Amino acid sequence: MKTLFSLILLFASFFAGAQTPDPVKWQFWAEKESDGQTYTLYAKASITPGWHVFSLNPGGDGLLIPTGLTIENREQYRDVGALTVEGKEVRKEMEGMGMVSYYEYEAVFKLSLIPYKPGTASGFVSFQVCNDRMCLPPAEVPFSVKL
After folding, report:
1. What is the pLDDT of residues 25-60, one digit of tens each?
2. If both were cysteines, with which of 18, 64, 84, 117 could 60 make a disulfide (CB 3.0 to 4.6 Å apart)?
3. Residue 36 region, left (φ>0) first, then alpha (ψ -120 to 50), else beta?
4. How far apart are CA 127 and CA 55, in angstroms?
5. 22-146: which CATH number, 3.30.590.10, 3.40.640.10, 3.50.50.60, 2.60.40.1250?
6. Do 110 and 84 form a contact (C-beta atoms < 8 A)?
């Protein structure tokens, strides 16, 4: 009986640990702009086909999680611009939800920063990834980028 119970626990722990790979991979970097004081922070989402992340204004029924970027050390910046996105935004009517906006395959989120002095920008990107059948729980991915 003890052996059977141990085998059940072993298999249960194996299957509990086997999760679907994360359908979104993030890359972060910063580039200094030509004015010599502004940096652009980039957060690139590479999204597995069949999945999507929501836009900054996802629409829908009000329950969708927009993708956002949070700077944790904002006091180190004279100015932080508005978050913008490069990528093909998909707008789709979804039954029971209305018009929904999201990105598939790839999206690059950009934020302009003017630091008081060079340093490190740190924070996190928050998002929710979904496919046509389900959504994974909202997630946060931390970043730290040298300016």
Report:
1. 999 999 999 999 999 999 999 999 999 999 999 998
2. 64
3. left
4. 9
5. 2.60.40.1250
6. yes
